[in-house]
Amino acid sequence: MIWHKQWIFGNWKMHGNLADNARLLQQLSTINNNNAHIGIAAPFPYLLQAVDLVKNNSIVIGAEDCSRFADKGAYTGEVSATMLADCGADFVLIGHSERRTYFNENNEILRKKIDNALACNLIPILCVGETLPQRQSGQETAVVAEQLAVLQGLSVNHIAVAYEPVWAIGTGQVANSEQIAAMHAFIYQEILSILGENVTIRTLYGGSVNANNAAEILSIDKVDGALVGGASLKADAFAEIIAHAKTE
Ligand code: PGA
């Protein structure tokens, strides 16, 4: 993983098939923006395909989740961080709001996933963000602080977080620049106080990032990249977002 560039990472969620994935990754492999570190979080069945398709370029592949159980065992349906690393993944999303909502993932579960990822040299990208009622009642920083508390006691030199306000995911409604700047500054401050002043941080913004708003979002202070859902499924849109990555 490259820690000094802006990360433009796609999150395919439960989308894709062998033919579309191949087309998309082939188109992405022709992109040339030296300021961007490009990554794709793919569904489990397509990890090997994706890893193989990017082997001659610098795109990194990751998973969208991993098991809270370590390594291997009688956990039907689970996929361990060990298996992801074995398949060539470099990173894994942890605690995406859809996982928190539909699978009741809390800090206790998420910490196990983070520990498992780190034990396999996978970079966990911890996803945090408040719901609309939480923001409307002024609780957004308290909510995000609680979510970041999962990092307490970790011994790491690098950490990646995605700030994704739940109300901005898949809705077309983007947080405004002031909201993003304020939350990213808060996240930096929290992480430095939890993990120490020497930790290297990437804080990505996610939530309805598209070709039209990427330039503005990626120019906000302490926005170290973007986590892109819907727009990462279209090569042209994702390429346009990548084109806006800049050297910090
Ligand atoms: P979206 O999803 O870009 O479709 O809003 C972002 C995400 O959930 O990571």
Outline the secondary-structure elements.
Elements: E1 6-11, H1 18-28, E2 36-42, H2 47-53, E3 60-63, H3 81-86, E4 91-94, H4 97-103, H5 107-119, E5 123-128, H6 132-136, H7 140-148, E6 158-163, H8 177-195, E7 200-206, H9 214-218, E8 225-228, H10 235-243
Parallel strand pairs: 1-2, 1-8, 2-3, 3-4, 4-5, 5-6, 6-7, 7-8
Bound molecules: 2-phosphoglycolic acid.
Based on the model shown, name its key terms.
TIM Barrel; eight-stranded parallel beta barrel; 10 helices; binds 2-phosphoglycolic acid
Count every helix, treating DSSP H or I runs of 4 or more residues as helices: 10
CATH topology: TIM Barrel
Beta strand count: 8
| Sequence of strands across the biggest β-sheet | 1-2-3-4-5-6-7-8
Instruction: Please identify the structural class as seen in this structure.
Output: alpha/beta
Instruction: Bin the strand percentage.
Output: 15-25%
Radius of gyration using CA atoms only? 17 Å
Mean pLDDT: 97
Helix content: 25-40%
Uncertain residue ranges? none
Largest sheet: 8 strands, parallel, barrel
Question: How would you sum up the global shape?
Answer: globular
CATH class: Alpha Beta
CATH architecture: Alpha-Beta Barrel
Bound molecules: 2-phosphoglycolic acid
Order of helices and strands: EHEHEHEHHEHHEHEHEH
Q: Superfamily at the CATH H level?
A: Aldolase class I
